[in-house]
Amino acid sequence: MNVMKYKKYYLLFSVLVLIPGVLSLLLNGLALSIDFTGGSVFEFGFEKDMQSEADAVSDLFVQRSVHVNEVSIIGDNTVSITTDAVDAQTGAEIKTALGENYGQVTQKVFETVGASVGKETTKNAFLALALASLGIVLYIAYAFRNIPKPYSSFKFGVSAIIAMLHDALLVLGVFSILGHFYGVRVGALFITALLTVIGFSVHDSIVVFDRIRENLLGKMAKTTSFSDAVNYSLVETLNRSFATSLTVLLVLTSLLVLGGESMKEFVLALVIGIASGTYSSIFVAAPILIFWETRKNL
């Protein structure tokens, strides 16, 4: 089975899939939660159904000069409100006003994050991504140092990073689109999901690349072309890659459908990233590696 016969089309497909998300990122950015922007989040439990009361609850905040960013109904009787930073006294006044209007009210959450903390979180997120990328390139270059010449272990590392960034960019693009059209906001858990996706993507690419290295070191004839060696290695690892990813995706899909509301964005990011990671390790990293290693022969 010649999987790499259509490698140009795989890369073209990847570019076309990324374009909408990249455009959305450039034009709209990400809808950030208070973890990054700073502000306050309230969550109140009521005895009555609050599905039609979102606007009325929001008005109680506005009357006290509190800017409301988002109001969402969780279940039937829990209301979550995200606002600009609010002090404890104003928060207590709002709870009292809600009690006067709706009866017994249970305050489940009241949390304030300063703008400086939000900026620090953003800085740390980018730093974590940069350090992870650098560390992965160096590790792969070292681990694959015995690959036969004229092939370069550095190219293996950079190809894996490109596939990894493909997956991260896809997740970011999808959430930019969801944030623009559906108000989905990304918080600290999203960064955790993104770093998990990065780890999974690189892990999958390394498994494929390690099989390529083994075949280049002696399993295949020295006259075998690099493209054929890569193709043969991919065919050997296809079942393993798809089986591993499918089992993970089945668990994540169950969590997405049946899990709590607070986990939805986290699990969705993992589903998108792991599906993309499975694709990119085979249909992005390997074609890039082939084109790079054989460019003199093109």
Quickly list its features.
elongated; alpha+beta; Alpha-Beta Plaits; Multidrug efflux transporter AcrB transmembrane fold
SSE string, helix = H, strand = E?
HHEHEEHEHHHHHH
CATH topology of the largest domain: Multidrug efflux transporter AcrB transmembrane fold
Report the sheet-strand fraction: 5-15%
Instruction: Kindly report the average pLDDT value.
Output: 87
Structural class assignment: alpha+beta
Which runs of at least 5 residues are low in confidence (pLDDT < 50)? none
Q: What is the CATH class of the largest domain?
A: Mainly Alpha
C-alpha-based Rg, rounded: 24 Å
Q: CATH architecture of the largest domain, please?
A: Up-down Bundle
What global shape is seen?
Answer: elongated
Order of strands, main sheet, comes to 2-3-1-4
- For the record, the count of structural domains works out to 2
Protein name: Protein-export membrane protein SecF
Transmembrane segments: 125-144, 156-182, 188-209, 242-260, 266-292
Organism: candidate division WWE3 bacterium GW2011_GWB1_47_11
GO biological process, one term: protein targeting
What is the structure about, briefly put?
With 298 residues, the protein is of the alpha+beta class.
